[in-house]
UniProtKB/TrEMBL annotation:
Keywords: Disulfide bond, Glycoprotein, Repeat, Signal. Residues 1-23 form the signal peptide. Residues 405-447, 448-481 form the LNR domain. Residues 109-258 form the LamG-like jellyroll fold domain. This is Pappalysin-1. SMART domains: LamGL, NL.
Length: 500
């Protein structure tokens, strides 16, 4: 049996390319045009983002507040070691900020800063994870750029998100862009910020989550070069960061999304290296960094702080599975923007919100190599398409369908269980998300009562007996992973077996 859990490999991926730029934009006073443009810009880059964006002031509904994120385990593949991955260090938020030694040329124009971080919860707002300051112009403390965490809601620290702010020396105002969702405490996340003289962009776990073109030109000029200080872990105003940091990279180019994803996966292209200014692995932080006054270097993270799977896991999608601590989360019930009374009122009162709109979506249909067994038939697709249009046309919404056929038997035979990471199957803990007949009830983990029901006579008798198909009995002593005996795509749960 084959298992895939990568969220984006669903047989049926529906891409909602949003209801045009108006979607979910609440008309309200006091929001500057600039801000609206920014919201729109951000939306344009996150398909479907509007669906989960709660309006201001409504973000802290009790249900959302208390929603406990399920515990995420590290992938089994992750345990392997790799020397150039470096160390993760822990910033206490008290006097262990680091300042880049003079002599390293900080990029003036295009740049990319990227790193893995695991922020603790309850950061103050704003918290600065890394930033570029100007130590000469005290009058203007916001010159330069910052990567950090800040609350977006007016109500205290309720909705903390990653942000990237930038103010070039010539600009009058600072520009901040925020990630689309709050950060998850104690989870590793890969964050990257880029600037190419026109666009500033924020990436979280390889996804572009914010963009703005409000700033332009070089960040600073030759003349002020000596004034610039790059810090990580906090700033001079004590907006310090608490949490782990690993593998900080600074480039003198605005890296594209593909490159950022490759960096995230730990692949290094020698061709790119001339563009690399710093790759800090924290093996010898004293070589490039200075501590602040009376401060100390951040210490290696306690408790086996290795981040999950880093490199050598083979290329492609499977990689990101072990690599990222992300999972698919449905929007909390009743808390999408479209359920918001204020928003709906606007739609009711302003007819121009209800102008005809087109939603484009794509069905990715997976066939086997002989092009016989599609995941869904043409008839099902057209039926669904018809139903969608019938249901939404009274509201001036039409659907535009495109179909993408993929012919790949191997992919077709895979089973996707949302959130069931392959490493969880048969790990001696019953994971409800993996409790499915097709995984042999989490390879037996969820059948504690049935553990002993496999009589010895059935073990390894040349028949795959379901009651023996768990790790405890070596998957029926191998019978269930033997292609000569059984349809292994359905019965083989042994993680190490090539037939799984
Ligand atoms: C990983 O590397 C560390 C430091 O180099 C070493 O102490 C540890 O034993 C290694 N672990 C494995 C599983 O190789
Ligand atoms: C910065 O990036 C932009 C867009 O990639 C490019 O056109 C420009 O030449 C770059 N500037 C420098 C100084 O490399
Ligand atoms: C659909 O759009 C038209 C304008 O094109 C508008 O007059 C009408 O009220 C809209 N219908 C609904 C149900 O919103
Ligand atoms: C996908 O396959 C179906 C069924 O064979 C076919 O009708 C359709 O034209 C194909 N679409 C594309 C874009 O290839
Ligand atoms: C088919 O899917 C498998 C994953 O199941 C993938 O490894 C392989 O590259 C795909 N083949 C092609 C030709 O895309
Ligand atoms: C799983 O499969 C591997 C490779 O075929 C085998 O060496 C191992 O013994 C199997 N594990 C169990 C628990 O049966
Ligand atoms: C399946 O049968 C083939 C041919 O009889 C044999 O070569 C192969 O080793 C068998 N595989 C297993 C896993 O027993
Ligand atoms: C072969 C094997 O691992 N047997 C174990 C299966 O599980 C029972 C109960 O948990 C153990 O007692 C057996 O030793």
């Amino acid at each position: 049996m084959k298992l895939w859990t990568s969220p984006w490999v669903f047989c049926l991926v529906i891409l909602l390319l949003c209801f045009g730029s108006e979607c979910g934009t609440v008309q309200r006073k006091g929001r500057s045009k600039r801000e609206l443009v920014r919201i729109r810009e951000a939306k344009a880059t996150i398909p479907g983002a509007c669906a989960t964006r709660l309006p201001r002031g409504k973000r802290s509904l009790p249900g959302l507040e208390r929603r406990v994120l399920p515990h995420r385990r590290r992938s089994a593949q992750a345990v392997e070691n790799s020397s150039d991955r470096g160390k993760s260090v822990y910033f206490t938020g008290r006097g262990d900020q680091l300042r880049l030694k003079p002599g390293v040329e900080i990029p003036r124009g295009n740049f990319t800063l990227e790193m893995w971080i695991k922020p603790e919860g309850g950061q103050r707002s704003p918290t600065v994870i890394a930033g570029l300051y100007d130590k000469c112009f005290y009058a203007s403390s916001d010159r330069g750029w910052l990567l950090g965490i800040e609350a977006v809601s007016e109500h205290g620290n309720r909705d903390p998100r990653f942000f990237f702010s930038l103010k070039t020396d010539r600009a009058h105002k600072v520009t901040s862009i925020h990630s689309n969702a709050r950060y998850v405490p104690n989870q590793w996340a890969h964050v990257a910020v880029t600037y190419d003289g026109v666009y500033m962009k924020l990436f979280v776990n390889g996804a572009q989550v914010g963009v703005s073109r409000e700033q332009s030109g070089d960040v600073f000029s030759h003349l002020t070069k000596k004034c610039k200080v790059l810090m990580i872990g906090g700033n001079a105003l004590n907006h310090n960061y608490r949490g782990a940091v690993e593998r900080v990279g600074l480039w003198r180019q605005a890296r594209g999304q593909r490159q950022i994803i490759r960096d995230m996966q730990g692949h290094e292209d020698p061709q790119d290296l001339p563009q690399l200014v710093i790759r800090e692995t924290f093996e010898h932080p004293g070589r490039k960094w200075l501590t602040v006054k009376d401060g100390s270097f951040p210490q290696p993270e306690q408790g086996g702080g290795w981040r999950v799977g880093f490199q050598g896991l083979g290329g492609g999608i499977g990689n990101s599975e072990g690599l990222l601590d992300t999972m698919l989360e449905p929007p909390p019930c009743g808390q999408t923007i479209c359920d918001n009374i204020e928003v709906i009122k606007n739609y009711n009162n302003l007819w121009n919100f209800r102008r005809p709109k087109k939603v484009r979506y794509r069905v990715i249909n997976i066939w086997d190599d002989t092009r016989t067994r599609p995941t869904v038939t043409d008839h099902q697709i057209s039926l669904q398409h018809q139903q969608l249009n019938d249901a939404f046309s009274p509201y001036n919404i039409t659907w535009e369908l495109s179909i993408y056929n993929v012919t790949n038997s191997s992919l077709r035979n895979r089973l996707i269980l949302a959130n069931c990471d392959i490493s969880k199957v048969g790990d001696d803990v019953c994971d409800p998300e993996c409790n499915h007949p097709l995984t042999g009830y989490d390879a037996g983990d969820c059948m504690s009562g049935h553990r002993n029901r496999c009589p010895e006579s059935k073990q390894g008798n040349g028949v795959c007996d379901p009651e023996c198909n768990c790790e405890n009995f070596s998957y029926d002593l191998g019978d269930c992973c033997n292609p000569n005996i059984t349809d292994v795509t359905k019965t083989c749960f042994n993680r190490s077996s090539p037939y799984k």
